[in-house]
Amino acid sequence: MNVPLLDLRAQYQTIKEELDAAVASVIESQYFILGPKTQACEQAIADYSNCAHAVGVSSGTDALLIALMAEGIGPGDEIVTTAYSFFATAGTIARLGATPVFVDIDPTTYNIDPALIADRITDRTRAIMPVHLYGQMAEMEPIMELAAAKNLVVIEDAAQAIGSEHRGLRAGSIGHYGCFSFFPTKNLGGFGEGGMVVTNDPDRAEKLFVLRVHGGKPKYHHKIIGGNFKLDALQAAVVHAKLRHLDGWTAARQSNAGRYDRLFIEAGLAANASADSAALAQPAPLAQITTPRAVTDRHIFNQYIIRVTKRDELKAFLAERGVSSEIYYPIALHLQECFAYLGHARGDFPESERAASETLALPIYPELSEEQAQKVVDEIAAFFRADR
């Protein structure tokens, strides 16, 4: 039995007729760029995220970029963000000539540690960009309080977290902007690239709409310079069709996470269980791995991340036995070669560096079967038996 990291074919087969009809309707209309399909998707995502406005864009990366552009971020500005995320988080900041100012992470959630942000703020700081990594929200309340006190903009990188929630608030709805990705591997993915920016500020929404069409309003009249950031109708139609299934898929991911927790405990491997499974058993005395812990109210498990020593050896062992896994992410942002000019050294952000060397993502997609999950755990147990 092979266990893929993600099985998009399995998902497609469950809703094939809906998706085929959605795509066919766009082809029939011959309206491929923006238009009614994109508008309908924008309204649906805004409603789902409890936001007043949503602006469809060409990717999750461009969602971050256009939000920064809307605030006029550029050379001389500093943006405080996490040292542990996908490259686009910091890359979009640097692309505009601004400086990413890194903060270490909470080792439990892998999200930015809000207690460390204040010390990184200077008179050049313009914004804070927290990331809701792996499907669990960063601790937003202290971030928003600090931003209000310092008159800073907050841009939520929620690329992995659409539908995640804490204290009744959805990811993307708390800051001045929320940025989503519809890359196919996300919990809500399209058939290619796509993204969305949500906001509750009508003036910011209007600026985003203008920026995504090269800054032109009316057409061919440009008071500002934007970019070609339009969400095409095919992607919008697919995402909109999938959205009605998202809560069901999230429930399946949560169920799969709970199953993993239980299986790891039964195998004597888990160093801790998630919040929902903590009462199942005490940690085994020979524990080898740390399983995820849900801290916020609704963890959507875009990834199921274990922390493990000999991570690279385990990944290779699993691959030999037909189990796919992935490392998100093997190099903390401050150690990326392109950011050498910032002057950071190994040891500057120890929790981010430790996460980069110890974390491993296991298959968690909604269609994962009990037999497949059991194989994943059995093979991990076999690795540690052989290692001993």
E-strand count: 12
SSE order in H/E notation?
Answer: HHHEHEHEEHEEEEEHHHEEHHEH
Structural class: alpha/beta
The first-to-last residue Cα distance is 25 Å
**Residue fraction in strands:** 5-15%
Query: What's the overall geometry?
Result: globular
Q: How many domains make up the 3D coordinates?
A: 2
Strands ordered across the widest β-sheet: 1-9-8-5-4-2-3
CATH topology of the largest domain: Aspartate Aminotransferase, domain 2
CATH superfamily of the largest domain: Type I PLP-dependent aspartate aminotransferase-like (Major domain)
Sheet having the most strands: 7 strands, mixed
| Second CATH tier, the architecture of the largest domain | 3-Layer(aba) Sandwich
Number of helices: 12
Radius of gyration: 21 Å
Structure description:
37% of the residues lie in helices and 13% in strands. With 388 residues, it is of the alpha/beta class. The protein folds into two domains: 8-243, 3-Layer(aba) Sandwich (Aspartate Aminotransferase, domain 2); 246-387, Aspartate Aminotransferase, domain 1. The chain has a seven-stranded mixed sheet, sandwiched between helices. It has a three-stranded antiparallel sheet with strand order 10-11-12. The chain has a two-stranded antiparallel ribbon with strand order 6-7. The radius of gyration is 21 Å and the shape is globular. Mean pLDDT is 95; it is low at 273-286.
